[in-house]
Design goal:
Elements (H helix, E strand, L loop, with lengths): L4 E4 L5 H9 L4 E5 L11 H9 L6 E6 L4 H11 L3 E4 L8 H7 L4 E7 L4 H9 L5 E5 L19 H10 L4 E3 L8 H8 L3 E4 L4 E2 L2 E2 L1 H13 L3
Parallel strand pairs: 1-2, 1-8, 2-3, 3-4, 4-5, 5-6, 6-7, 7-8
Antiparallel strand pairs: 9-10
Helix pairs in contact: 3-4, 5-6
């Protein structure tokens, strides 16, 4: 297993973006238009952060839109390098996304609510550059599409990693004290960090530093 990539999510300012990059983040997550969860910012702010993020740092637009046309419009406005689709959209919508955004990297979130997530990952795999495994609840009264602070069944996530050929990011309840166990259990391509590196919704430099030290200590 090579170096573990890190995506610092819920970035809410240019200053937070700079802090995450300084500590070695490979990607920044910009959260917009969610039914719940932390770190929601306006499209204008997402666009501004993306514009000042230097390559090769990737910028991920987290969108909860459901149609290919609406998703493509969203990315066209925010100008991010990557789109992270946080809901389980109709796979047929990818035809429009690929046609409209040929140079944009595509990441599909799979919410691990049960073993059916394995087959879902296999369905989406042909249409995306990577998968991201999270702990949302898509069928509850209060829909959750990320930022829950909960872990999920890592055995299911590990099986997805074994069965797909695309890179897989692991999200959901990652903390400095459990991240080495998560890496060992799942062996992901990358990690998605949010609640575990924040205090009162703000990026916490000490927590971020601790997290990065733990990742380095894992051999990733």
């Amino acid at each position: 297993m090579g170096r573990i990539r890190t995506k610092v999510c819920c970035i809410n300012s240019v200053a937070e973006a700079a802090l995450a990059i300084r500590y070695g983040a490979d990607a920044l997550g910009l959260v917009t238009e969610m039914p719940s969860g932390p770190g929601i910012i306006s499209d204008d702010l997402a666009r501004a952060i993306a514009a000042c993020t230097p390559p090769p740092i990737a910028t991920f637009l987290l969108t909860s839109r459901l149609t290919g046309r609406d998703i493509a419009d969203h990315v066209d406005y925010c100008k991010t390098s990557t789109v992270q689709i946080v809901d389980h959209i109709d796979p047929g919508e990818y035809e429009t996304i690929i046609s409209r955004l040929p140079s944009t990297r595509r990441v599909q979130v799979i919410h691990i609510e049960g073993v059916e997530a394995i087959e879902m990952a296999l369905v989406y795999e042909p249409f995306v550059h990577a998968l991201l495994l999270d702990s949302g609840r898509t069928n509850s009264a209060q829909i959750e599409l990320g930022g829950t602070g909960r872990t999920h069944d890592w055995e299911i996530s590990a099986e997805i990693v074994r069965r797909v050929d695309k890179p897989v990011f692991l999200a959901g309840g990652l903390q400095p004290m459990n991240v080495q166990d998560a890496i060992s259990a799942v062996r992901p391509f990358g990690l998605d960090l949010c609640s575990g590196i924040r205090t009162n919704d703000d990026l916490d430099e000490a927590k971020l530093a601790s997290f990065m030290q733990q990742i380095a200590g894992s051999g990733g």
